[in-house]
UniProtKB/TrEMBL annotation:
The keyword Zinc-finger does not apply. The chain crosses the membrane at residues 21-46, 52-71, 92-118, 138-159, 166-187, 229-249. This is ABC-2 type transport system permease protein. It comes from the Bacteria. The keyword Membrane applies. Coiled coil: none annotated. Keywords: Membrane, Transmembrane, Transmembrane helix.
Length: 252
């Protein structure tokens, strides 16, 4: 508990988490408002549609998670922490718990905020949360944010440099996973196994599927929605474990 308290104090003693949380909330609510306000002719407004902008906030929260560890290496505070607590794994697990819980809370606030804003903009639309799929569409966003934060911490531990870690996170999630689909024959098949595509399938898979199991993007997912979540979590935990091993082996 003492380690958790220390990591909480370290996290909130800097301005970057506060700015990241505000930016994540503002971006996601802003884009959701624009999308919902223009809904109608092009697409049908549904509970799932209220969450289509979740990725904007996710990217910001992942940057926040990466900064939580890379700034410690940048300013050397991680050395003092490891000197005070020689068990590095315990320190890093505590940091992960604090950052992941914060990411989850922010994710839920954003998700239900976007849903509430959508109901205000389109009060006549059918946006009541009634089914299990509806709850997964909205409440599942917080779970994706938790796993995304864990993944970002793992990348931060492996790279250590803020610019490098942020570049890898953003380029991979926003660019690489989309461009893979351009590879002839196998590109779409590979996309079905890439972590952020799989996370999107967890949130919106049932709404994206049409005849034959093909998604709106042409991706044929091999997993159910909850198995997709477990797969995404497995990738994140594997990266975190690799980062912790690297932190124990390398000098701080």
């Amino acid at each position: 508990m003492a380690l958790l308290a220390v990591e909480r104090i370290k996290l909130f003693s800097t301005r970057s988490p506060w700015w990241c949380m505000l930016l994540a909330l503002g971006l996601t609510l802003g884009f959701t408002g624009l999308i919902v306000a223009n809904a109608g002719g092009v697409f049908v407004l549904s509970v799932a549609t209220t969450q289509v902008a979740y990725n904007f906030g996710l990217m910001v929260i992942m940057v926040m998670a990466a900064l939580a560890i890379t700034t410690e290496y940048r300013f050397g505070t991680i050395r003092a922490t490891f000197q005070a607590v020689p068990k590095r794994t315990a320190v890093l697990v505590s940091k992960t718990v604090v950052v992941a819980l914060l990411a989850g809370v922010v994710g839920e606030i954003i998700a239900f905020g976007c849903w509430g804003l959508s109901r205000l903009i389109k009060p006549d639309a059918s946006l009541a949360i009634q089914t299990a799929d509806d709850w997964r569409n909205v409440a599942g966003v917080g779970l994706v944010y938790v796993v995304g934060a864990i993944l970002a911490l793992g990348v931060g531990l492996l790279i250590r440099q803020t610019a490098g870690a942020v570049a890898v996170i953003l380029v991979w999630s926003l660019l690489v996973e989309s461009l893979v689909g351009l590879i002839p024959t196998v590109g779409v098949k590979i996309q079905a196994w890439l972590p952020f595509n799989v996370a999107s399938h967890f949130l919106h898979g049932d709404q994206q599927l049409v005849a034959g199991g093909q998604g709106a993007s042409g991706i044929h997912y091999q997993m159910g929605v909850w198995v997709s979540m477990l797969y995404f979590a497995g990738v994140a935990v594997a990266l975190l474990a690799a980062g912790i091993v690297a932190a124990n082996v390398r000098d701080a």
